[in-house]
Amino acid sequence: WINPADAAARNVGDRAPIELSNTRGVFEAVAKVTDQVPPGVVWVHDGWAGLNGLTESTAALPRTALDGFGFTVGQSTFEAEVEVTKRA
Q1: Is pLDDT of 70 > 70?
Q2: Average pLDDT over every residue of 13-31
Q3: Distances from the Cα of 35 to the Cα of 12, 73, 78, 79, angstroms
Q4: C-alpha–C-alpha distance, residues 42 and 27, integer Å
Q5: Counting C-beta atoms within 10 Å of the first and last residue's C-beta, which end of the chain has fewer, N or C?
Q6: Residues 82, 22: contact at Cβ < 8 Å?
Q7: Who wins on pLDDT, 55 or 63?
Q8: Given a cut of 70, is residue 49 above it in pLDDT?
C-alpha cells in the first residue's frame, strides 16, 4: 500500500508493478494506491521474502492475542526505510 501523493511523485498507478529496495535487498510487489496509509509510509503484507516463511503467511496467534498489549508489531518497529520505484 502506498499513499496517493507518494504514488504520484513516483508515477505509480494502482496495481502497477513496483520494487521496494534498501541496502538489504529488493522486493517486487504490486502497488495498492490508497489513502489508508499516511504520506511517507508504505505497507507490505508479510514483508521481505522469507521473513514469515515459518508461518507460511498464516497467523500463528489469533488477532485478539495482542489486544492486551500496548505496542505494535511489524517492520515499522525497526524503522525499515525503503525506496519505491516503478518496474518496467
Answers
A1: no
A2: 89
A3: 14, 21, 23, 21
A4: 13
A5: C
A6: yes
A7: 63
A8: no
The confidence score (pLDDT) of residue 55 equals 40
Instruction: Give Rg (Cα) of the chain.
Output: 14
Give which of 58, 54, 32, 60 is closest to 44, Cα–Cα.
Answer: 32
Question: Distance between CA 42 and CA 76 in Å, rounded?
Answer: 10
Task: Please name the residue that has the C-alpha cell 488477532.
Answer: 63
The kind and range of the H/E element at 22 are: strand 17-22
- Report the alpha-carbon angle 71-41-5, nearest 5: 150
